[in-house]
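Q: What residues go here?
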């Protein structure tokens, strides 16, 4: 590991960007001049529905989206988007954050889906940016992986404490136990039909058995790709209800790429989504206007 001279800024272009996270800072509440501290992440198992809703009670009266034709989305109290679909700004974190906040200032997923994006993201977060979001997740790399797994965990452990969740694709994990170091911030996402693991409740259980503190990111479109009846999705929600931390929401095209939520999928997904009302929903494609 490279070393930094005292007082110098970490170089985000190499794996030597491991450095102690800076202390939490207060983040300004969107639309007001009142700063409130961002609360520490807590175990989903310890958050009962009323407690969860109380956590976000201060923002209930703030519109989740600027404009949406979807009653389902308009009614949800904590809605945000992933930066993954903003390909034109890939790697430009200030621009990505601004674009995400224009969709919703309540929740965001900062996506470093390719490992090459992770150093830049960590460098940006170390600047203690004044983010408006009440819920912040980081999508860990699933593409272009070169770091040894133990080193990747070291890097992810350096994320600021106010990052609520670190999303991992379970099919990219070899040594499951290593990721236990991320504790309750680790969130495993159910996979789509193209993948070889983490696709259903049984396959996810093998990971959660080793990672008792990890949470679930329920990707409802991935569940549909496995079983259009949504029985597989329901089984995941039923078995891991206490682990649910947030939802990924979109439709999928024929190549399993995320596309805006269709009216048909909105109707199909609604029964399961109504059971996920107390966690953030993250759009993985632009919202239909």
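A:
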């Amino acid at each position: 590991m490279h070393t930094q001279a005292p007082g110098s800024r970490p170089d985000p272009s190499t794996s030597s960007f491991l450095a102690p996270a800076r202390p939490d800072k207060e983040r300004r509440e969107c639309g007001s001049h009142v700063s409130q501290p961002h609360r520490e992440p807590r175990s989903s198992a310890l958050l009962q529905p009323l407690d969860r809703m109380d956590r976000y009670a201060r923002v209930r009266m703030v519109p989740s989206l600027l404009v949406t034709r979807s009653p389902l989305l308009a009614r949800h109290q904590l809605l945000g988007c992933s930066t993954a679909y903003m390909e034109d700004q890939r790697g430009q974190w200030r621009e990505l954050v601004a674009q995400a906040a224009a969709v919703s200032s309540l929740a965001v997923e900062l996506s470093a889906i390719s490992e090459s994006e992770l150093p830049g993201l960590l460098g940006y977060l170390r600047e203690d940016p004044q983010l408006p979001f009440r819920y912040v997740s980081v999508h860990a790399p699933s593409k272009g992986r070169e770091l040894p797994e133990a080193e990747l965990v070291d890097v992810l452990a350096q994320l600021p404490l106010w990052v609520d969740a670190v999303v991992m694709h379970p099919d990219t994990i070899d040594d499951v136990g290593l990721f236990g170091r991320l504790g309750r911030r680790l969130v495993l996402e159910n996979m789509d039909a193209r993948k070889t693991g983490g696709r259903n409740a049984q396959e996810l259980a093998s990971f959660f058995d080793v990672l008792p503190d990890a949470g679930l990111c329920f990707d409802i479109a991935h569940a549909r790709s496995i079983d259009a009846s949504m029985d597989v999705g329901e089984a995941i929600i039923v078995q891991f209800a206490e682990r649910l931390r947030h939802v990924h929401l979109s439709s999928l095209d024929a190549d399993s790429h995320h596309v805006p939520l269709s009216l048909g999928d909105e109707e199909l997904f609604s029964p399961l989504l109504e059971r996920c009302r107390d966690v953030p929903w993250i759009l993985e494609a632009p919202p239909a206007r």
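A: Context that may help when evaluating the design: The longest strand covers residues 244-249. The chain has one domain: 47-283.
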